[in-house]
Hints:
mainly alpha, three-stranded parallel beta sheet, disordered N terminus
Amino acid sequence: MLNDYGAMPVIQTFFAEPTIYQSFDLDAVVTVVDAKHARQHLDETHEAQEQVAFADLLLLNKVDLVSPQEIGILKRRLRAMNPHAKIYSTQKSKIDVEKILDVRAFDIEKKLEIDPEFLKEEAHEHDDSVSSIVLRETRPLALDKVDDWVFHWLSEKGTDVFRYKGILYIQGMKQRMV
């Protein structure tokens, strides 16, 4: 899932400034849906619903952690929320990159059908039930320790986490890791 404000501000960025719009193409909005916790998130927050509604591609992740019946129910719910999105079932978010890159799935007209006002900055209000944490470190990180920390954090807080993202400075790597 994209950011604390959902897909709309990311999409708005492409259309707010002519130089961005003329220089870049928005290929697709990809949303990862946690199959294990999706029902709770969709029931409790507008934020999760909005991210599904504005997606072009839905990666239904962690399908190995739920029953086939639960997956079927969730897919029907997602399809009802967004009949245009392609849905891919994944484990550990593994998918052939050709299915999510250079797919030309974004269609501004479909987004405007969902919400004719969504390109206006004031059209979106942040869901107060969603918050962020930011961790900063200037020293290079040990990748194995980052993996361990994320694993334990998600084990304890997984039901409360929509997404996590970062740019990491890893020991022994010249480029930053996203």
